[in-house]
Structure formats: structure tokens, C-alpha cells
């Protein structure tokens, strides 16, 4: 299997990448969106789409996230083009966020992952309990 990027020699259009290769599109995407905070932010923004949410409202709707972590998460999402940021020149500035069209297209796959988790986490939890109760090898 080739490990070049789309458009590079050796890569055919639509060819799947090698997730073990750091240049693989899937791996690169998971590096960006693979945190719980990112998926929560996308979910909350998707619930409001196409409307915007202010930073403080986002923080209220994402239990357990710190101001710093929300800021870092949103900066990454904006940089990747998944979220749009709008600043009102007020004192203090009012900062609004919304999903872009690209960000909205990510909600479906993340929703499918949530559905899978809801269907299977009890099995994973049970496996963990059994492993914790078993004597070490």
C-alpha cells in the first residue's frame, strides 16, 4: 500500500491510506479530532447550527471543560476550518462560534461513533471489570 498523499506520485484517487503511517489522512484527522473535547464542541455547535454560540455558553454546555481547554480546542477547530469565529468589537469583545459546512459534515461520523459507544460501552466496561478481577499472569 502506498503512503503518499493524494495528488502525489504513487497515490491513486480514492485509494485508502495506511493508518500506521503519519501521513495517512485518517491518522492525521484522528490526531486533530480524537479528543473528547473536540467531539463535544462539535456536537454542541451542531445542535445550534446554523446559529452561533458565545464562548461562555459553549463552556456551560460542555461539562468539565476548563476555559483554557475550550480555548485551545476552538483554536484548533478554527485553524482546521471546521469552526468559524466572529468577534464583536464590544468591551469586552463578544466572541461567537459556529460550525462551518465542513464542520457540519463531521457531525454525522461523530454521531455514528456515539451510537456505537452507547451500544457497546457496557460490553467494554464488563470486560474491564473481568480483567480487574482476574489474577495477573
Task: Please give a structural write-up.
By secondary structure, the protein is mainly alpha-helical. It has two domains: 1-33, no CATH class; 37-133, Winged helix-like DNA-binding domain superfamily/Winged helix DNA-binding domain (Arc Repressor Mutant, subunit A, Orthogonal Bundle), CATH 1.10.10.10. It has helices at residues 25-33, 36-48, 55-61, 67-79, 101-133; strands at residues 53-54, 83-88, 94-99. A three-stranded antiparallel beta sheet has the order 1-3-2. Strand 2 and strand 3 form a beta hairpin. Helix 2 (36-48) crosses helix 5. The two termini are 37 Å apart. Residues 1-5 have low confidence and may be disordered.
CATH superfamily of the largest domain: Winged helix-like DNA-binding domain superfamily/Winged helix DNA-binding domain
Unreliable stretches: 1-5
| CATH A-level architecture of the largest domain | Orthogonal Bundle
Order of helices and strands: HHEHHEEH
Distance between the termini: 37 Å
Major β-sheet profile: 3 strands, antiparallel
Helix content: 40-55%
Report the top-level CATH class of the largest domain: Mainly Alpha
Strand composition percent: 5-15%
Amino acid at each position: 500500500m502506498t503512503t503518499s498523499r493524494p495528488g502525489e506520485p504513487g497515490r491513486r484517487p480514492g485509494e485508502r491510506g495506511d493508518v500506521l503511517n503519519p501521513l495517512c489522512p485518517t491518522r492525521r484527522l484522528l490526531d486533530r479530532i480524537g479528543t473528547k473535547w473536540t467531539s463535544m464542541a462539535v456536537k454542541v455547535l451542531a445542535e445550534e447550527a446554523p446559529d452561533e454560540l458565545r464562548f461562555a455558553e459553549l463552556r456551560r454546555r460542555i461539562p468539565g471543560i476548563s476555559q483554557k481547554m475550550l480555548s485551545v480546542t476552538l483554536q484548533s477547530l478554527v485553524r482546521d476550518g471546521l469552526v468559524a469565529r466572529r468577534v464583536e468589537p464590544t468591551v469586552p469583545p463578544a466572541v461567537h462560534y459556529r460550525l462551518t459546512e465542513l464542520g457540519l459534515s463531521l457531525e454525522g461520523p461523530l454521531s455514528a461513533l456515539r451510537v456505537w459507544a452507547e451500544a457497546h460501552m457496557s460490553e467494554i466496561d464488563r470486560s474491564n471489570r473481568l480483567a480487574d478481577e482476574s489474577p495477573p499472569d
